[in-house]
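Write out the 3D structure for:
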Amino acid sequence: MSAALESLNRLRERVASDETFGLPSSRLAERLEALASMGFAAFEEQGFPTRRLEEWKGTNLARLEAMDFSRIGPGSPPAEARSIDPSDDLLADADLVFVDGRLLVASAARADLPEGVRVQSLAEAASEDPEIPETYLGRLPDLKKESLAALQTAFFEDAAIVHLDSGVRATRPIRIRSIATADGPTQASASFPRLLVVARRDSAATIVFESESRGTAPGLTAFVAEYHLAAAARIETIQIQSEGAERVHVTSSHARLEGDAHFDSHVFSLGDGLVRSELKITLDAPGAETRMRGFFLGRNRGHVDHFTTVDHAVENCSSDQEYRGVLGDESKGVFRGRVIIRPDAQKSDARQSNANLLLSDRASIDTKPQLEIYADNVRANHGSTIGQLDTEALFFLRARGIDEAVARLVLTRGFAHAIVDGIADDAARHSVAELVDNALASLYPGARSETAPEKGGD
């Protein structure tokens, strides 16, 4: 038995003895207890994914299996968690802030959201409308086939829940922040944040979920997100991961779309550690459409793996996905994109693209876009590219007096901003552009940032 599984077994007994989810005895509490038990049983049966599995051939989780976890969640809380003040400027613009998977603070700014838009913790939702988490939480992941989603389901202790009534539109981005903390230089901690979004008919919102870490110690962040979109609902979601090199970060996102629903996904992987991001979307009624955009950055010896699946289950649906990667130093990127067009999914329209920029001869990318087409009246294409910075464009900038580091930064930012600029919400786009620009600047420490283009430019 691996060190990680042995310590998780030990901690599981401790967690099971606590009051479940901090909720009073109720039908919801009983369902969550049963869901956690199902998750742990499914994880024990499958274990950690290995490279023998087709979906995991590009990523080795030996580093995760070797972790000896000292705690799950914030514990008592640890010193790092206690040091996070709710008035911290980093937390000021968030509607909900979670530390190690539990709510730290809920912002009073939620009051300015329109009536019918609810942004709550699990306890708040259970108190106000328990039917929402009871009906929708844990419905989309297939625990018997997704061991890390099963692990997350076994241990999550809280959740961010966004509920939109029919016909309601959020007037500003909904922001949720998740912070993972460390106890010391060697003790591993595990954090299990969770997000549930239920969008009723003809509702709309932009939702930003940021994951970051504080402290330098090994650890795991396992994040599961579920999106239920009713007919004609429109959701734009932005996931940002910027955790430290010591952590393993795994995201499993699932969306189910009814007729004429529109789901825009933007994923930004900016951390330095081992990252695995999975996105699985089911287009379940005619007229459903999704647009998937992603940008991943590899630095030092980071490993970034993106695995996407779009299931065209019925006719007249469309999907358009574009992921871009920038890989420097000794980093490695993996992209696996899978589009399934079922026999009854005639008149489907599917596009898939992965473009990658290698900044070092020691960096690498393993890319494999895939189409599985079982219908004959469809339009579909896919492709991937691997290249370096354009030498002619670099020469053009150098000839105009721009030093080499700045020129390289300008070109790299232009490549990345093709994804950033796809964010529809202005405020969210500008804040993401700043985060991406700051991350890219770390690749070129000699660049004079004041000479680079303004945020959001090409």
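The chain has two domains: 3-285, 391-458.
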